[in-house]
Amino acid sequence: DQARAPDYLSGLNPEQREAVETVDGPVLVLAGAGTGKTRVLTTRIAHILATSRAFPSQILAATFTNKAAREMKERIGHLVGGAVEGMPWLGTFHSIGVKLLRRHAELVGLSSDFTILDTDDVVRLIKQIIQAEGLDDKRWPAKQFAQMIDGWKNKGLDPAQIPEGDARAFANGKGRELYAAYQARLKTLNACDFGDLLLHPIRMFKANPDVLKEYHQRFKYVLVDEYQDTNTAQYMWLRLLAQRPPGVPQNVCCVGDDDQSIYGWRGAEVDNILRFEKDFPGAKVIKLERNYRSTEHILGTAGHLIAHNEGRLGKTLFTDRVDPNDGKVVVHKAWDSEEEARAVGEEIEQLQRQQHPLNNMAILVRASFQMREFEDRFVTLGLNYRVIGGPRFYERLEIRDAMAYFRLVCQPADDLAFERIVNTPKRGLGDTTIRNLHDYARARNIPMLAAAADIIDTDELKPKARKALFDVVADFRRWQSLLENTPHTELAEQILDESGYTAMWQNDKSAEAQGRLDNLKELIRSMDQEESMRAYLERVALVMDAEQNADMDAVSIMTLHSAKGLEFETVFLPGWEEGLFPHQRALDEGGRAGLEEERRLAYVGITRAKRRCHIWFVENRRIHGLWQSTQPSRFLEELPSAHAEYDETSGSFGGYGRNPYGQSRFDKQEPFQNSYSTPGWKRAQANKTDATRDNWGNRSGHAVERIGYGESGPRAKTIDGE
Ligand code: ATP
Ligand code: MG
């Protein structure tokens, strides 16, 4: 009865309210984006506290990010009025795992001051283990094995449990042994890796039912957000903590959306949603169908797109937010990524002039290399921005390394640059050599590169180091001699190739290596915007100097993956081209499942928008100095004409974008030719709009042929030209 309902319940719709008030027994909220799942979880916690069903310390709540956990705590505070004391068990799976483990470390053979290793530590350790086994760590790279272990841990597998095939796949069948040796070594070091933060508690609970029972008594309520992205280990953990003996209510509430499952590549199991009803019998499944976040057009666009996936549970979504002033989702075309960034920048400035805060705008990219162009543009415009969920482009390891090479070529006295790359990639120039060199340089008051050139003529160094240093000096001399007369982008590429830096990442088998190579390509690509390497370095120095301040009003730039759960008034989605989005790698490695995960990612992207959603694709990406024409993403064809429209004014080239061919390839007078099948949106648009163009604003048969997506022929071109 509404009149007596506490404030925090009054705004909820009946289904939300049911999900909040059904506190006894298992509840699964399965609902689309923006339907208030997170809000339900938050309100549910407030309700539990307000009705004195539990103390804050008796509620276990898992979120996907630390940021989400912080926000949830804040909102609970608002709802119940005043600060919530504690909530010590509200956090990510990992942070809760650490807490459990610190309390009971001895039960898994650790002491409570154990260290948590980061990825670099892990790789170094594994390398030692591989070498200790007498194996060649070039043939069997530590990074690759670290990733295999991570995969096993995501599945909750101990060494004894990994599949035979997996064990055979690495180091001539030594996979299992190495994994066991690694675990033993961690124990000796009193350390654990990220996966252990989940697996150790699971082991501990299984081996010590009395301890588990203690937590069963403590945790009266268990809640999980973004449930669709839990992996097997997290699910095991959850089941252990939330299951109760028959007859005892299992007060667990999970909320999720199968259409937003985007971490399959990291071991997430969307099937956990289906298992829920089996593992928690009598579960109440609640569907929320009203979306509170987005306009009708945004919702209609996202819904139409995701309907192209086969593997779905299927949901309805509607909104009451129907306002004739709401615009459709707009698809824009740009000549290349520079024009794309410029046009997005203009759009943002225009919104800013209409008093829209920058905090309400986000650019969501598929791949992090795409950020560079936007960062550069925003620095030029003086627009504040922040990069969420990762370093800014120029702060990335591989970019800093590459820049150190360029700096040293341009400024031979740059000792910091020298020290950064003299042994990257590995050249056998160890700490002792560097220290010798340092002393030598300091004693003579000369830069280290100059000292290196001197010292190779002396016998201060061991022959091997001398030879390695000789090569370094010769390389830099050669590059310096090319500085004036070789086009600087060419030289940059040459430097990275000849130094072995590119090869270092090519030989790296880890998952992030390809991303780093993409970033390096993007770096080189971006250099042609400046006259020279020196001018380029200067501009980057300015970009690096741009402030990154949490309180300022700023546009957010992030990957689609890290945008999960968030919302913004205006969302920009650049780079909707075949090969980039859907990403070629997802297609190559995942096939149909990979494509569907990409489509879910597109759904996540669109549904972040509350009022305005702008999608972009470019016609050309420049890779290794070569123009590659691209094909618009197939997802664009899956957008409904009722809710999405093509921006007819975008992609005009006269004096706006750069055209490497020197003239417009798109002659307005030529008749529209449609030589390929145009399902869905594309055809609808074609009928509706100017018949001399296709939907992408291409105005000649020539253009259609070039960018056309159809049945004829394979999709040959990919953005990274692989
Ligand atoms: P996602 O799937 O993207 O994580 P979600 O289902 O978790 O979305 P929320 O973020 O909880 O959705 O809610 C989306 C927006 O709708 C938020 O701004 C929230 O405050 C608002 N909202 C949710 N329920 C209501 C309601 N009953 N009345 C008004 N606004 C609501
Ligand atoms: Mg949410």
Word description of this protein:
- By secondary structure, the chain is of the alpha/beta class.
- 46% of the residues lie in helices and 11% in strands.
- The chain has 28 helices and 16 strands.
- Strands 9, 10, 11, 12, 13, 14, 15 and 16 form an 8-stranded mixed beta sheet that branches. A 6-stranded parallel beta sheet has the order 3-2-6-7-1-8, sandwiched between helices. The protein has a two-stranded parallel ribbon with strand order 4-5.
- The longest helix has 23 residues.
- It starts with 6 loop residues before the first helix and ends in a 15-residue tail after the last helix.
- Adenosine-5'-triphosphate binds next to α3.
Q: Spans of 5+ residues with little confidence (pLDDT < 50)? A: 652-722
What's the end-to-end separation, in Å?
A: 63 Å
Helix content: 40-55%
- Which percent range describes the beta-strand content? 5-15%
Task: From the structure above, extract its key features.
about 725 residues; alpha/beta; eight-stranded mixed sheet; six-stranded parallel sheet; 16 strands; disordered C terminus; binds adenosine-5'-triphosphate; binds magnesium ion; ATP-binding; DNA helicase activity; P-loop_NTPase
Q: What's this model, at a glance?
A:
The chain has 722 residues and is an alpha/beta fold. Strands 9, 10, 11, 12, 13, 14, 15 and 16 form an 8-stranded mixed β-sheet that branches. Strands 3-2-6-7-1-8 form a 6-stranded parallel β-sheet, sandwiched between helices.
Question: What is the topological layout?
Answer:
Layout: H1 7-10, H2 14-21, E1 27-31, H3 37-50, E2 59-63, H4 66-80, E3 90-92, H5 93-104, E4 115-116, H6 119-132, H7 142-154, H8 164-169, H9 175-189, E5 191-192, H10 196-207, H11 209-218, E6 221-224, H12 232-242, E7 252-256, H13 271-279, E8 284-288, H14 296-306, E9 329-336, H15 337-353, E10 361-365, H16 371-381, E11 385-387, H17 397-410, H18 415-421, H19 431-444, H20 448-455, H21 463-482, H22 488-498, H23 501-506, H24 513-527, H25 533-545, E12 555-559, E13 568-573, H26 584-606, E14 609-623, E15 626-629, E16 644-646, H27 680-688, H28 701-707
Parallel strand pairs: 1-7, 1-8, 2-3, 2-6, 4-5, 6-7, 9-14, 9-16, 10-12, 10-13, 11-12, 13-14
Antiparallel strand pairs: 14-15
The structure holds adenosine-5'-triphosphate (ATP) and magnesium ion (MG).
